[in-house]
Amino acid sequence: MSNIKDVAALAGVSVPTVYKAYSNTYFTSPEIREKVYAAAKELGYVPKTVNRTGGKESKRTVALFLDEIVNPFYSAMVRETSKELEHKGYQLAVMYNSNSASVERENFEAAIAHKYDGIIFVPSPEGDGELIKQLNAKRFPLLQLFRTVYPDLDTLLIDDELGTYLAVKHLLQSGHKKIMLISKTNPALVKREVGYARAFAEERLEMDNECLYLMSYADCAKEMIKEKIHAVQPTAILSVGESTSINVIQALSEMNLSIPDDISFIIYDDLPWTAVYGITTVAHSYESIGRLIAEMIDGQFNKRENGSGEQPARLVLDPRLVARKSVKILL
After folding, report:
1. Based on the domain organization, do 8 and 95 belong to the same domain?
2. Omega of the bond leading into 260 within 30 degrees of 0 (cis)
3. pLDDT (tens digit, 9 = 90+) per residue, 117-139?
4. Hey, what's the torsion of the CAs at 58, 92, 320, 178, to 10 degrees?
5. What is the pLDDT, as a whole number, of residue 283?
6. CA–CA distance, 244 with 241 (Å, rounded to integer)
7. What is this structure's pTM?
8. Contact 281/73 with Cβ under 8 angstroms?
């Protein structure tokens, strides 16, 4: 890994000038700052946060790139991850990549050019593989979450196939056969469909593909859901995520269908309000997610400093079913 002396030499400035270029305390001309940033980018150098005297602070800064902002799952994950990283001497900076490859690249470039020591990210399906390859070759700490877009990186996954299987199996064993799966477009949908199909296969029942409803990100989601429910006539619904689930609940209310008397309902994600209304959910341990993220990114720093060349780590977390009162027994 390049160091601050390498950056100073390439930029044609002194080491103190490099410190000043990354500090908000000292004045540095825009021209000098651009030369330093360009040299740092070329060398793959990521500076430590500097204090008022130009020395290094003890905490490293790790960036977290998310593809959604208004998402209770991510809110809980960020809370637990920040707590665990704090215990290990890191601070967390959250950025939004909107599931866009171009925004993701801009975030990476900003993190490299400024003060971040490592990056945790939910990768865009169409991300910049060449940039990731370059960073990985330089042993820059990287951890991808929930999608295996880059097989050479350490990865933390959630078993969405298992989570869907548990929910659908619970509904089937409660006597439901017309089960709608409602989700927005998402790379995890394929695994959820596999879990859905596995539950039906184990019960030796035919699944109806009309019950798999993939929605676009549209303002008219509630009306689309109402139309689909009217067409399919399900006895149970499994919805994914908060916004989709709220639209489902509103649609059912406007159709004068009650939960669970008229239709059973499970939400994929144990949202804060689901327990209050007795809704069965597929839940994740946010504490475990936060702890594993912190341990895995910390392990990246240890591997870099020790010069070890281990194979990429891949951990998979199992979700669990939290049964409440929103599923009616039809048997």
Report:
1. no
2. yes
3. 999 999 988 888 888 998 988 88
4. -170
5. 96
6. 6
7. 0.79
8. no
